[in-house]
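re: ur question from earlier - yeah i can do the single chain one, its not a big deal. heres the input i used so u can compare w yours
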Amino acid sequence: MDRFLFMISEKYLNHFVSICLILAISFAVYSNSLKNDFVNYDDSWLVLENKKIKAINFDNICRMFSEPTASDYLPLKELSYALDYHFWRLKPLGFHLTNVILFMINCLLVYLLTLKIFEDKALSFFSSLLFTLHPIHAEAVNWISARKDVLSGMFFFLSLLFYVLAFKITGIKKNLYFISSIISFIFALFSKPSVIILPFLLPLFDYCFLAEKKVFRIERTIIRILPFLVIAGLSTIITLSVASEKEVVKTYWGDSPYLTFLAMLGVVFDYIKLLLFPINLNVRYEVPFPPSFSDIRIIAGAILLIAFIVIFFKFRKNNKLVGFCLMWFLITLIPVSNLIPIAILKADRYLYLPSFAFTLGLSLIIFKLCNLEEISGTVLSENILSSFPLKKGDGVGFLSSFYKYLVFIIFFLISLSCFVLTFSRNTVWKDGLTLWLDTIKKSPEDCLVHNNLGTIYIDKGDHEKGLKHIKEALEINPYYWDAHFNLATIYSKKGKYEQALKELKTVLELNPNFFRAYINAGNIYRQIGATDKAIEAYKKAIEIDKKSGDPHYNLALLFSNNGLFDDAVKEYKEAIKLDPTLAKAYNNLGNIYFKKGLFKEAIEEYKIAVRQNPNLYEVYNNLGSALNEAGNSNEAIKYLKIAARLKKTEIIPHLNLGKIYMEKKMFKDAIEEFERVLDLKPDYYQSHISLGLIFLSLKNKEKAIEHFIKSLSLNPKDKTSEEFLKKINPAN
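and the output i got, formated as tokens:
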């Protein structure tokens, strides 16, 4: 028994400890990201306004796979959002937690993959530790809209791990692992199309790690990767068709493949610099354009690119580990190299997969520099730290221990630095304000940065700062329609409707299919009483986007405000049909039923609204009022208390509670509610009237007189208080 336990311990203990450490460290380094909010950088339309994620049902899942939300085909990413919403609604904690968990799984897979390839626990642990802590991943983990990177990365590494395992065993499990690798690859493509490069990494693995065993044959490799190539081809067709349908097919930067190529040479140099020195990370890098070949960055990038290729071919036989790292880095950069034009030249998240080669290569270099391994084969020893090749003699044990500690110290210092940098970078992603304030320092000439910072200030009610940044965005790029739209929003909130309509007209000239510009124009016309123009604008929005419920909702508001309740009901129902999660539509529909005295129908609509959005205080207040009118005062009290708790500064729930308590002769509770109203709004004289009536019922004339007098002091025209004072004291 003791021997058995010793074998178990010897084989699994260190492995188990390594796994636990990687998982613990990967969680710890991103633990403060769980406090972060959504940011106004794609999170709004990909998550907060994405109707498809608001319900997990067959129809919605079909829509995820058939109606791409963005310009890429990412159904699994949307499905992951739907799962988050199902459990967390729109609490950012849940979405960030999923990103962190996915990253933890990625780090574990990197460790297992490295272990299976190189069969060395020390190398696997240290390289995966560097991957875990590297600050370059902060964008992919913190940014909820970048879920595709950690999600596709998980399936990418899983596919490669299954592929490696298929060569470690024989029999039926071999085929199962191979099929699992293919399925994982499909899932990776459904998460992010750029993982299409995986089939080109498989021959690299075959060449670097099977040739030593004399089993490498190019024809065998082609047969093995053929299913992956077919799937990659189909994915390419889908991706291009989606991009074409969404009309987002990009042209080369400056309409020049040559200039784009030059710019990307400089970016390659920047990427290596960022991996080596991950400081001054940025969400929106400013890449010099048009580039010049005299730029030292471009020259350095060209030299590095040539050097990588030369080194690979020079050492492809004698040092395949180095070749593997170099080619992995270059191959995984291909999808983001703008060989096929994409929207952005440079981003931290683009280094998510290439960083695997960097952290592995850096670990190998440190071991080599510390004389711990003669890196000349394809597979390292089982324990790299105990394989230091020294001649026998005095002091060898001391030197061996010295080098081991040196490796540990180097990795500890690098890891500690990376931990601090990553932990600090997470705070930049706290919310939209912190993100764009950091970014604007580094990219002051980026119109998107000014625009997004401006929208943050608008949302916070600081229209002057918002206006300043929106105008700066338009100075940088006068054709930036999004900034014109936000400028119209500011003018509208300031009551400058003519200027707002002028900006919306500019928006529609630049982007004729932006239906929200018509909605906002309709809202302005509604506010100024131009009903016919408002209806025309809303109907134009409906014509452009027949799948959105928002134009119908706003049209219903217009009809309701004009007393056309039947038309309003029709439009609210159409809005709900198109968007079953539109809580405000259920609430307003309930309000119409309430006005008609249809309390049962109103209650039904309010309860649906509560299920769709549990954070709207007015829905709970309306539901409480409807329940009270329907004779269910006890349940009404429950919902009114929730309304009061959700919005502590609002007096209406307290007023309604006070009235119900008065009707139920629960005077002590009623007094508390009306006094709470006066705490929130001291000049609300009606509460003094109610308190006066309560104290009259309690036979406390002095208190009643006090409140009636206070009411009259606030409103000298208060006839109710005047009449009760005369009744209490006829002599006066």
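The first helix runs from residue 2 to 29. not sure if urs matches, ping me
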